[in-house]
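User
Please review the sequence:
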Amino acid sequence: MNSSTSFKPQSVPYQQTSSRISLYHQQCQEIKLTRREQELLEWLSFGYSYQEIAVGIHLSVNTVKNYFLRLREKFNAHNNSHLLSIVFRGGLLPAIHPLEPSENPLSNN
């Protein structure tokens, strides 16, 4: 590979990062989540797919997809990763402990 075309990682400028986190925090203070939206974000934060979430909380896959579409619109997020970044950094979804096997409907225990 030619050195002129190789990837050169750059750090994100602190000022930009700080401003964005402040924006996320402000945005999260203005937006209220329903209990269901909070629950869906928690499932997503553990890496569950739409199908697994749908089974776990007894909704159709299309309903789960629609919830996430509305959540991305609500937070002006580009995708679900961006959505989780916003809600974590904005303080709406604190770092939480994983579900106990007895609480997880997808667990084999």
Summary: The CA atoms of residues 70 and 76 lie 10 Å apart. The mean pLDDT is 79. Helices lie at 14-30, 35-45, 50-57, 61-75, 80-89.
